[in-house]
Amino acid sequence: MTELERDLLALRIEWPETPDVASRLELRPRRRLLLPALVLAAIVAVAAAFAVPQSRSAILRFFHLRGVTVEHVGSLPPAGERPLAAGLGVEVDDAQARMVLGGPFLPPAHGTLFERNGIVSTLLRGPLLLSEFGAPEFLKKFATSNVEWVKVAPDVQGLWIAGAPHVVFFPDASPRLAGNVLVFATDTRTFRLEGRGLTKADALAEAREILGTTAR
What we know:
Elements: H1 3-10, H2 21-24, H3 30-51, H4 53-61, E1 62-65, E2 68-72, E3 90-92, H5 94-101, E4 113-116, E5 119-124, E6 128-133, E7 139-143, E8 146-153, E9 156-162, E10 166-169, E11 176-178, E12 180-185, E13 190-195, H6 200-211
Parallel strand pairs: 2-7
Antiparallel strand pairs: 1-2, 3-4, 4-5, 5-6, 6-13, 7-10, 8-9, 9-12, 10-11, 12-13
């Protein structure tokens, strides 16, 4: 063995301790990465739908608000024209209305109440027809007139349907022509306010009075 080989064997090198890289890595939860991916996918899907004319027109034709669906059509289905007070159902008192709606009819000061298929209605000055239902009943409307989203209160959205008459389908009732209508909903109640000469400003004012709130 040469002198160089003996020196190399005698040489001791102090290597630094290998760091624990795995324990120091901060592994972020997968859901933090998954949420942005889902949001991005939804944005891409909506953008793709609006990029196709047929899909875009279909999206813009339908409006949904807690048990009420409005479809914008080119022509209305056959329907009759009847007075606002026609076909409202049987007369009920406040206690019976409360049982149907799961709460008191609004506003507390009102005229005669009528109930049909879970929908409680009354006639207001104007005349205006106010209908309310608590359970998610299904009302279908077909409109050729203007349909737009409106803000009734900070946490209450509505649909304003105005212009030409539209067709409304109440449960178990023949379709009829309806005038201008404001539909609005809370978490537990859906309201429908109708009047042939009803304006959007008057409808929103009436709705806010019914809810007992002032929109900000």
